[in-house]
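May I ask you for just one protein sequence along with its backbone structure tokens in two labelled lines?

_____
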Amino acid sequence: MSNKVILANEGKSIRLGGLGIIFKLLGEDTGGSFALIEHPMEPGTLGAPPHRHTLEDEYSYLLEGHVTIQVGEQVIEAGPRTLVAKPRGVMHTFWNASNQPARVLEIIAPAGMENYFAELGELVAEGAPPDDPRRIGLAQKYHLEYDRSRIAELLKTYHLHM
């Protein structure tokens, strides 16, 4: 990896509802070893439906605010400077049930998942609903499995939106 400086307001960004995605380091920057993404989250936001990766491990480091992260059956109330590992193969989700914004730094290893986010951002910008065959195909392309059956329960229980 060559010397690189990314300032606070730098990095391509997209919005997926109340979740932002700011690309800080891509696989092409790290020789494919990892990607680094910042997620600004609006209050009351479900970050992602419960899902599992088969190729990547994810590490969430909370920069600001409070986020709840569920990994398997474990529910973690994460505050600033908390690090949560989300191993490949384990169902996980996260949300900001507070009334304050939050920011999460995601380390994804190996890299590649950042391309999923970029492609998903294009479909969301086009207005493709979650059940759109292109979105389903995109998840399959990146070896993601979603459990959409829990979304309504999470939204209602924690007063969230997507």
User: Anything to note?
Assistant: The chain has a mean pLDDT of 94. The longest strand covers residues 45-53. Residues 13-158 form a domain with the Jelly Rolls fold (CATH 2.60.120.10).
